[in-house]
Amino acid sequence: MTARRTQLALALQLAALAVLVWALLGGSWLDPRSQPRMLVLVDRSQSLPSEDVDQAVAALARAARAAGSGAPQLIEFAGRVAASSAAGSESAAGLEPTATNIEAALQAALAVHAQAPLASVVVVSDGHENAGDAARALLAAREARLPVRWVALGRPPPAARIDEVLAPDRARVGQRARLTVHVTRERDGQPVARPAGPPEPPLRVKATARAAGGQTQTVYSQVGATGAATVELDARASGAMIVDLALEETASGQIIHRMSDAAVVDIAPPAALLYVQGSNGPLAPSLLRGGWQLNVIPASRLTAQADALDGLQAVVLDDVAVADASPRFWTALAAAVNDRGLGLVVLGGERSFARGGYRGSTLESVLPVISEPAALDQPAAIVFAVDKSGSMGQGSGGVDRFQLAQRAVLETARGLSDRDALGLVVFDVAPRLLIPLGPALAGTAALARDWQTSPNGGTQLAPALELAISELERSPAARRMLVLVTDGFVDSAPMAELRARLTRSRIETIALAVGPNADVAALQRVVGTESGLVLRVDQAADLPGVMRSGLERRRARVERGSIAVQQVQPLPFAPPSLQDWPAIAAHLVTRPRPGAVVTVQNQRGEPVIAYHNAGRGRVVAITSGLGSWTPEWLAWREWPRLAGGLAGWASGAPFGGVGGVAGVGGNGGVGGAGGVGIVVSHNSDGLQVEVEVPTAPGTPETAGLSIAVDTPTTPGRLLALEHIAPGRVRAALPDGGPGLYTFIVSTAQGSHRQLFLRRQPAEDGTWGTSPAIARWRDAALISAWAPGDRTLQRADEGRPVDRWLVALALVLFLIGVVLDRTRLGPADIAPALRLWIAQALRLWRVRLASTAGAG
Question: Which residues pair with 480 in a beta bridge?
Fold first, then answer.
């Protein structure tokens, strides 16, 4: 009995030694740390042939089972990552097969590895990604000591594919945008020379254009013998028109190759211009003959256009006065220029600028020039003659016309300079000199006090005019001016004699006829037509504004004669310089607003053509007008380019000129107008835009230049500029993902828009394996998987010894010791041994269940 116990104890101790040696040699039992575990990431995007992927997964499963590891875990991915499953299970839904995000799949593998260590991860993919950053995730896997193996699969290239797309950068509504699509045929993955005849089988290009408003159009074009197809698309709506292309077999319609977001064309609105005629100038007929769409109206109908500005691209005011429209219209015009980018062209003439009441007006607030009320070398002596008869005090609706006349005189006097002289005569049946002609500043202070008179009695015009003329005749001022305010009930005054004396004394007269019953014709006979001006004031409330603008209009200085002009700055449109500018016959004297660009001036430096940006709008002022004051310009060889350039620049905001060629698939953009060059390109860090602006000598380079961009996710981002050369700047923009980018470049020449289409590489536009796989392999981030991969058969270096096998060896050894040192018989030991074996089997099953749950 003792010998048998000793033999059994020795057998148990030998078994313990064998189990320990097995554990030290890398054997595994229940310890999950020592068991090889493989996770397979399966790419289910459209760029991979599903049959080849299924065969690769089946091969991995067979290799895992042959190594005794059981079926590997699977995680399928595309644009999204599915939940893990066992090999052979059905594919998960919602993977977004039109995209590939390898980084997200590797992050899911790292999460599994953090819960229970993996022996390795095997990726089945072609490596083409259009979302995420796989290299970043591979670095994280290396830091986590998780080996990544790769099964590189890819589909063969198509027999033909779209190689290059040439598209116009811009077009206008109503035009046709022509695209040229170059097709390359391949054999064994290599381009083949184009044969002399058309391709076999016949191929066609299908172009689908998507407008900004959601409208679509589809056009087909056959691929010719040269391997190119010409596609013409109708520019139907303004905004970005994005074009998708597909290469098809003509007979079957089978798609061979797709190119989504292949190109973008910026469609500008039609050049709708409102042309307002205060005088009949030649610009409107010239533009109409040139094919421009004009709505020509007289200045008298301008007020009705206040609600019609939204449908316009530009407004041309040809010799228009502020009094031609209501304040509501001018407010609407200024808002449209500043806020919406409406273009504005203002042409000079007898009724414009200071002569048209622009000074201090809403219209002048958006102009690049300021109207000067008087020349500094021409001080004026001004006498105000105000009717205080009873009819002036009893207006319709209870309005006191005399009080309004007092306010009008005071407000007008406040606009005089310290070199001017001022006097005041009031009259009814007899005149009264309230303020003798003297310095304007002292006279203005006296006007602000009580006039110590009130309306009553009748009207005798002749004595009042005689008194006012006598005051002016004693003034040595270069200009003598009489401002007459009356309700127009003119008595039998000696009109011819009064007019002759006014002419002889060189007195310029402004008569304001107040009220609907004013005798305008009689007043016109008194003041004459050469040096006199009669203004009707139907509403007495308008009297202050009409008087002030009327005086400024008469005082406005007009340079006359043969005036030589010269160009000193580039024009805001192409070509930026014109040669041999002819002389002009007249222009209104103005001064440039700070920040405005004077491109043409006279020899004294006074503006003839000036422009600037008012808010978002482009505004140009031509103080000579384009008509009777510029007769030689109409026969000038550059007249068509000047007239068309002005209209195009103003109406083009913020699009710039029409023309240019964009790169393949929107991956490059070239644009600009008025000599401004804009180039947008893509690099590894994001997008880069370079802008070149022509500058004249002595002009600060890139003054006022800014670049803003609307990305697919963020509108109105202002970019930091880097000056890289004279007149040239560069700006960088981090990659904001695929989609449409809109760059707005603001310069002194105006605002210019450039579209850039950042394409997302399409799943159906890739084939073969990505070159990135080789780069990752060279960087030791991945290694190729082979069926004999040792990670399926043994643990990696540093894997711990199986704790369960060590525990089993210890238990067997202790049982042997106990059996050898005690006198218990087999009948006593057998129940305990059976209990221990049952307990061990139960723990084994629990551990297996928990391991399966973790997988």
Answer: 381, 507
Nearest Cα to Cα of residue 104 among 83, 140, 123, 131: 131
Cα 512 from Cα 279, distance rounded (Å): 23
| Cis ω before 201 (30° cut-off from 0) | yes
639-663 residue pLDDT tens: 888 988 888 888 764 433 333 223 3
Q: What percent of the chain has pLDDT over 70?
A: 79
219: Cβ–Cβ under 8 A, 6 or more apart, which residues? Answer: 206, 207, 209, 231, 232, 233
Are residues 754 and 660 in contact, defined by beta-carbon separation less than 8 angstroms?
A: no
The label of the residue with tokens 């980084």 reads: 103
**Token representation of residue 759:** 């394409």
Amino acid (1-letter code) at residue 303: T
Name the range with the highest mean pLDDT among 179-188, 202-211, 278-287, 842-851: 202-211
User: Per DSSP, what are the bridge partners of residue 121?
Assistant: 39, 148
Residue pointed to by tokens 């003054």: 703
Report the chain's C-alpha Rg in angstroms.
Answer: 45
β-strand 668-671 against 380-387: which pairing, if any? unpaired
Q: What is the mean pLDDT of the chain?
A: 80
Find out whether 567 and 582 touch, Cβ atoms under 8 Å.
no
Closest to 528 (Cα-Cα) out of 558, 557, 504, 556: 504
pLDDT digit string (tens) for 210-250?
A: 987 788 999 999 998 888 999 999 988 878 899 999 999 98
Which pLDDT belongs to residue 666?
Answer: 38
Q: Is the peptide bond before 575 cis (omega within 30 degrees of 0)?
A: yes
Taking the alpha carbons of 659, 664, 665, 668 in that order, is the dihedral positive or negative?
negative
Q: What is the distance of C-alpha 295 from the center of its chain?
A: 29
Q: Which of 119-123, 592-596, 745-749, 799-803 has the highest average model confidence (pLDDT)?
A: 592-596
Residue among 812, 818, 837 nearest 20 (CA): 812
Q: How far is CA 121 from the centre of its chain?
A: 45
Residue/partner pairs of 395-398 with CB below 8 Å, 24 or more apart: 395/515, 395/540, 396/515, 396/516
CA distance 56 to 73: 14
Give the residues across from 258 on adjacent strands.
246
Q: What's the pLDDT tens digit per position in 242-274?
A: 999 999 998 888 888 888 888 999 887 666 789
Task: Give CA–CA dist 47/558, Å, rounded.
Answer: 74
Length of the chain: 855
Cα–Cα distance for residue pair 695/173, rounded to 1 Å? 32
Q: At what angle do helices 495-504 and 461-473 cross, to 10 degrees?
A: 10
State whether residue 548 is helix, strand or coil: helix
Residue 534 makes CB contacts below 8 A (sequence gap 6+) with 511, 513, 520, 523, 524, 527
Query: What's the rounded Cα separation, in Å, for the pair 601 and 337?
Result: 25
| 122 close to 39: Cβ distance less than 8 angstroms | yes
Strands 190-191 and 176-187: antiparallel
Structure confidence by residue, pLDDT tens digits, 16-70? 777 677 666 655 555 555 455 778 888 888 777 888 888 888 888 888 777 666 6
Please say whether the beta carbons of 172 and 658 come within 8 A: yes
> Residue 690 corresponds to which tokens in the numbers above?
């370079």
